[in-house]
Design a protein that fits this description.
Pfam families: Sulfotransfer_3, TPR_11, TPR_16, TPR_6. One of its GO terms (biological process) is protein O-linked glycosylation. The chain is mainly alpha-helical. It has 35 helices and 5 strands. Helix 3 runs antiparallel to helix 4, helix 12 runs antiparallel to helix 13 and helix 17 packs antiparallel against helix 18.
Length: 697
């Protein structure tokens, strides 16, 4: 037989060709299947089965755009079967095109009502679009058609979880595992559920088990990254996302999670870059717009952030509520309380049953007895199903604030203790290790070291550091200073922390540095902040935790000034304990640990007080500022060597962004109600008072 003799001398029909193409594809002979499909399309360019199979092939090859193009064309063909629309729905879902996905899935089930796959796809799409009750109906119908289908029970569990019924979700996951013990997707989803239940170690183990079963399961990597992010292990979270990106570099969800991690690490430019990469791949992904908004807000690009949040709020998905809250908080930060109030109301109109929105506006109002928001939040905590862990924490802290406003200590501390305990259980903190580290700083920064490297760094009179415990008046001092026309309040920068970290381990490596090292670190810091208000005579870096570096700053930046803010120890700690911080304040969520940390901070600052140059370091007491605003404001302006300006006395009228837990307070004139506030709550502060070495009265 000649090599030129045809293997199939007979003319194949389109039907026969497609049967053969499917056989080749199922046998792993992709090239032969593709050639047959292309031959069919030469004869019948709109043949839906050939277009559909080519679409599935391109999807398997990772060519998502081409896959979607083929299957869209298949759906336009007259007589396209229901499976084509079901496949189109799934591809659109994967690309974040939820509206088109829902339309395609509904067409599939209308065309073939018994097609369980199409109902399953519709249920998942509705779930991702935030239409949870409709999703539940679809998936329960699929479960009635296929009660022994593990995938259906997994999807049903996901919807129960979205509805907040974590018990039914866990039961459905377990049923899926009973049917298929090696079901990687279930272990991945169960990890997310366990994380919400506060079982963090078990959650991480479940996600790792999913990866062990299926090393290509993207969601497992993302869930594990989210778990590590929740306990502030940013390096581990980043590791898992990058592991996913190694085999799926265009995974939009991975890029979004990477942006989230970068925001947590305060690398905002990089976060915005990753978010935009995600949007280039999936322009209609609501959570990509959401994370871009967060990055832009942190970068001070407020109008662009507002647009990103607004876009996220109108796109299909499950982040609309979060986006509306974020937009309202953004308006709070810009000082437009009226607009923020209206934005919260707008959010409640769209989500009228949302206790989360009610809780989120706690810093935008002062509660009085009988406030209906209190009843809404109290009811949400005891409702069935119970709220997810993060929402429960938020509700407890908001209710703690509300009952403190009302002066009901008993109820306030019931909620504050609950909220703090939930938060404290989510991460590791070693108080003894922290104390040893702080003591090490004091031992290294000796008068001899300060004298040896005096003027070693890069001179700068422009930099002013406002330091102290959180909630000690740092924001108030910054706002007074930033009201001066020659001063720019930059907020809580991480520039110094990054510059020091790039140079080595602090404080251990400090004794090994030389003059050039100190100059290089100082230059690194100045380069990071050089773009901030280049015309300003002074730039305020108000990161309270920079007190750890108070001894280092004069060595890095000769001429820079440090303002140490102090406040009554118990008032400071009570204010910390009543706040769910956005950033890392791991010492703040247990009263005895909080008191011990305060003592460590106090000892370190007492040490620095003895060795810092008088012309670069002053201390300001919050209570004194409250009692003598003008005297202390003039003292501050004199310290930073600028002429007096009366605008510093009307600091609450200064229009600038304030990104801090004290955002509401600095929009008000000086008030005295926070002085000695702790005394009316002393009965609930026993562990704190003991740690501070104070007798409870």
């Amino acid at each position: 037989m000649s090599n030129n003799t045809p293997l199939y001398p007979q003319q194949l029909t389109v039907h026969q060709a497609m049967e053969l193409a499917n056989a080749h594809w199922n046998a792993g002979q992709a090239a032969q299947a593709e050639q047959l499909c292309l031959r069919v399309l030469q004869v019948a360019p709109s043949q839906p089965d050939a277009l559909n199979l080519l679409g599935l092939m391109m999807h398997a090859y990772g060519k998502m755009d081409l896959a979607l193009d083929y299957i869209r064309k298949a759906g336009q063909s007259p007589g396209a079967p229901a499976i084509v629309f079901s496949n189109l729905a799934e591809l659109c879902r994967q690309r974040g095109l939820l509206q088109e996905a829902e339309q395609a899935a509904r067409r599939a089930v209308e065309q073939e009502p018994q097609l369980a796959l199409a109902w399953n796809n519709l249920g998942i799409i509705l779930q991702e679009a935030g239409k949870f009750k409709a999703s539940l109906e679809c998936l329960q119908y699929v479960a009635s058609l296929q009660p022994d289908n593990a995938e259906v029970h997994n999807n049903l569990a996901n919807t129960w979880k979205r509805l907040g019924d974590l018990q039914r979700a866990q039961e459905s996951y377990q049923r899926a595992l009973n049917l298929r013990p090696d079901y990687a997707e279930v272990y991945s989803n169960l990890a997310s559920l366990l994380s919400e239940l506060g079982c963090i170690d078990e959650a991480a183990a479940s996600a790792r088990q999913a990866i062990d079963i299926n090393p290509q399961l993207a969601d497992a990597y993302l869930n594990l990254a989210d778990i590590e992010l929740s306990r502030m292990r940013y390096a581990e979270a980043s590791h898992w996302v990058k592991a996913l990106l190694e085999f799926s570099p265009r995974h939009a969800g991975a890029l979004i999670t990477l942006a989230h991690i970068m925001i947590a690490n305060e690398h905002y430019e990089e976060a915005a870059f990753e978010a935009r990469k995600a949007l280039a791949i999936a322009p209609d992904r609501a959570n990509a717009h959401m994370i871009l908004g967060k990055a832009l807000q942190a970068l001070g690009q407020y109008e662009d952030a507002d647009r990103a949040y607004s876009k996220a709020a109108v796109l299909p998905g499950t982040v609309a509520e979060e986006a509306l809250i974020a937009r309202a908080v953004l308006l709070m930060e810009t000082g437009d309380k009226q607009a923020a109030t209206a934005a919260f109301e707008q959010a409640l109109k769209r989500f009228p049953d949302s206790a989360r929105i009610v809780a989120a506006r706690c810093d935008n109002k002062f509660y009085r007895a009988g406030d209906p928001d209190i009843d809404v939040m109290e009811s949400a905590l005891v409702s069935e199903p119970t709220p997810p862990l993060n929402e429960k924490m938020m509700l407890h802290f908001s209710l703690g604030k509300a009952w403190l406003d009302v002066s009901d200590s008993e109820r306030a501390f019931f909620h504050l203790n609950q909220g703090n305990a939930l938060k404290r259980a989510s991460f590791h903190y070693d108080a003894a290790q922290t104390r040893a580290w702080v003591n090490n700083i004091a031992e290294i920064f000796t008068p001899a070291l300060m004298a040896q490297f005096n003027n070693a760094g890069t001179a700068s009179e422009r930099s002013v550091f406002v330091v102290g415990m959180p909630r000690s008046g740092t924001t108030l001092v910054e706002q007074i200073l930033a009201s001066h026309p020659g001063v720019y309040g930059a907020g809580e920068l991480r520039a110094l922390d990054r510059a020091v970290a790039r140079a080595g381990r602090f404080p251990d490596d400090v004794p090994r540095w030389n003059n050039a090292d100190f100059a290089r670190i100082g230059t690194d810091y100045l380069e990071q902040v050089s773009h901030l208000a280049p015309e300003a005579l002074r730039v305020i870096d108000k990161l309270p935790a920079n007190f750890f570096y108070a001894g280092l700053i004069p060595l890095l930046l000769p001429g820079a000034r440090i303002i140490h803010c102090r406040r009554n120890p118990v008032d400071t700690c009570l204010s910390c304990y009543s706040k769910l911080f956005a950033g890392e304040q791991t010492f703040a969520y247990q009263l005895d640990e909080l008191g011990q940390f305060y003592r460590d901070y106090e000892a370190l600052m007492a040490h620095f007080r003895q060795i810092l140059p008088a012309d670069s370091f002053i201390e300001v007491d919050y209570e004194t500022v409250v009692d003598d605003l003008e005297g202390q404001a003039r003292r501050l302006i004199d310290f930073i060597a600028l002429p007096w300006d009366d605008a510093c006395l009307t600091f609450h009228e200064t229009r600038r962004i304030v990104r801090t837990a004290s955002v509401a307070q600095v929009r008000q004139p000086i008030y005295t109600s926070s002085k000695g506030r702790w005394q009316q709550h002393a009965a609930h502060l026993g562990p704190l008072l003991k740690a501070l070495g104070m007798e409870q009265k």
